[in-house]
Amino acid sequence: MGIGIAIGITLIVGTLMTPIIQGTFGELIASTGGKLTILGVLVAVLGVAIVSYAGLLKEKATGVQAEEFNLKKGLLLAVMCGIFSAGMSFAMSAAVPMHEASAALGVSSLYVALPSYVIIMGGGALINLGYCFIRLIYRQDISFKSDISVPKALLISNILFAILGGGMWYFQFFFYAWGHANIPSQYGFMSWMLHMSFYVLCGGIVGLALKEWKGTGRKPVRILCLGCLVIILAANIVGLGMAA
């Protein structure tokens, strides 16, 4: 449920705050296409909520319980994660001059966003590394030495999975840039809505394919499928808005 709240918030904040900050939100809601795209955002949030509810039913059906449950802390963290995650969307919007400079040098529209990733993801890497070092300094029960003192096979496995995770994280935005290049510039901010909602859609589909929902009963699966269909509907509404 917390993940659903976080994704819902980052979807709304990361999508709609961009035109608000740029001062184009008024123009957006004044046009038919703009109204449709905003409707698509709201429908996408509804789809995320439905899928999240299905996940809650799945946890109840399988008897999964959190080791520590604190509603206030959980909601606070979910809201914070949602807001901070939207920073990626703001960074991409702020990097438009870099995209234009790349295009002026003859770079294909599919790849103009890639140079900006050096700054955006590099900044994120520095923050994460800094936080890790701070934890190492102030937490006496953890150490880098103990982390690398595990059996060699496990260490290699951890390194490979870390590389795989980093590669997958990068390539999601590599292909994000491809999709963004095919969206009308006035609706560029909608890339984030499509990206975040398809997170949930693909997660649901992969979960079904891997039989993670087996044994949960028909109701959770039906609600999950309904949520996925609502997300697909949202994407089509946004597409109609862009074409209007």
TrEMBL record:
Keywords: Cell inner membrane, Cell membrane, Membrane, Sugar transport, Symport, Transmembrane, Transmembrane helix, Transport. One of its GO terms (cellular component) is membrane. InterPro entries: L-rhamnose-proton_sym_RhaT. Signal peptide: none annotated. GO terms for molecular function: rhamnose transmembrane transporter activity; symporter activity. The chain crosses the membrane at residues 36-54, 75-96, 116-138, 159-178, 190-210, 222-243. It holds the Pfam family RhaT. This is L-rhamnose-H(+) transport protein. The lineage of its organism: Bacteria, Pseudomonadati, Pseudomonadota, Gammaproteobacteria, Enterobacterales.
